[in-house]
Amino acid sequence: MKKDGKISVRKIQVAILFGIAFIAIFVWIAALSENRGRNLRVVFLDVGQGDSILIEAPNGNRVLIDGGPPSGKVLSELGDILPFFDRDIDVVIATHPDQDHIGGLPGVFEKYSVGALVEPDLYSGNGVYEEMEKLGEKEGAQKIVARAGESINLDKNTTLQILYPEKKFPPAAEVNISSVVVLLTYGNESFLFTGDLPLEQEKYLVEKYGTLLDVDVLKFGHHGSKTSTLPEFLALASPEYGVVSVGGDNKYGHPNKEVLDLAEKNNVKILRTDMKGRVVFEVDGVNLTFTVEK
Question: What is the mean pLDDT of residues 198-205?
């Protein structure tokens, strides 16, 4: 409507507001369709000296394995790769109570809605562990004790299978031996996540599971330390890619040269988060590709 040759200011304001709303809705739908996916996505987050892996099934279900150190780097990593409006993580797996694996999880529980917490049956009295437990309970996350033989169906063709541990550990047990080991399969492709599992327990897995351990991608145990990656274990797993989640110039000397030499001997392509940054695998059920995001 014109008055004295001028368009109503109110109508202009309304038109602008409708335009902004339309753009916002379009961006929201585009982001949702992009991130609530087509393929399986497995992201090894760059959290420094620690472990954290995000799994997104084709139907959008999410699993976070570990949360890195207490630096909170996991939150900035998740913020980079997840839509700002989507604060849901269906399952968190805390492989064992070391701070470089669970240190960032209290922050995850504070910022995200978590459906379930999976952990080994090993009590730890450290403050971070107790805070994680408290926040998980406050969040209403279902607590699940990891046991070999259990599985989580993320999608009709996407399965997480727990291979280890099989028992409750005494309070004095060395925490690395309790590391939850998870096998992820989607179509013809598979990933194996081993936490900080030591050599002796890797040998046990070899004897129990045999060729089930044959995977496409292996997360090298204990950040490439010589306390993990038994030659027989790596030979049986025979991965095309091995991911080492590690901090640059760390005081532990990770990854160990002997482990890197063993990987080269077995034709495993090593991807290190300290050198490559975030490592992102995409799987369509048949083919597997990866990109790195420094």
Answer: 97
pLDDT of residue 173: 87
Q: For residues 215 and 192, is the Cβ–Cβ distance under 8 A?
A: yes
CA distance linking residue 145 with residue 119, whole number of Å: 5
Query: Quick one: CA dihedral 183, 219, 290, 114, positive or negative?
Result: positive
Q: What is the mean pLDDT of residues 232-251?
A: 96
229 and 262 Cβ atoms separated by less than 8 Å: yes
- Label residue 268 exposed, middle or buried (CB < 10 Å: 0-12, 13-18, 19+): buried
The CA angle 252-258-264, to the nearest 5 degrees, is: 125
Instruction: Give the model's pLDDT for residue 8.
Output: 53
Q: What three-state secondary structure class fits 260?
A: helix
Tell me the pLDDT tens digit for each residue of 54-67. Answer: 999 999 999 999 99
Structure-token match 């399969």, residue found: 185
CATH 3.40.50.2000 assigned to 37-293: no
Residues facing 114 on adjacent strands: 89
Place of tokens 């399952």: 91
Q: Domains of the chain: which residue ranges? A: 1-35, 37-293
| Angstrom distance (rounded) from CA 139 to CA 107 | 12
Indicate the pTM of the whole model.
Answer: 0.88
CB atoms within 10 A of CB 22: 10
State the number of CA atoms in the 13 A half-sphere of 254 facing the CB.
27
- Number of neighbours of residue 37 by Cβ within 10 angstroms: 16
